[in-house]
Hints:
Elements: E1 8-13, H1 22-25, H2 31-34, E2 47-50, H3 60-72, E3 77-82, H4 87-95
Parallel strand pairs: 1-3, 2-3
Amino acid sequence: MYPASGATLLVAEFLDESAYDPSYIFKKPSFFSEAGLSSYNPPSSAVKVVGPFKPDGGELEAELDIQYAMSTARGAKFVYWTTTRYVRETGLNSTRKTAVRRR
């Protein structure tokens, strides 16, 4: 099934929490090589960031989210979306087409 070209995978962070640290995700040896994916070395630019982005080296859950997403959907486009709102507000606004605006 690889590559997952044509797919987009979104990881979201709510309530203005801190985000993953790109320097940790893409450092050497990387999560990907440690997981047996030595030929898969995506650049940090492979993740499109939307919203307020506050990298924090202590945000392990966010780092694992993006690492596992990228390792299981190799070839997909990746979006890391952050918002200052609660998940319910974000969902309600997205149905009104105001949460994410196309540029």
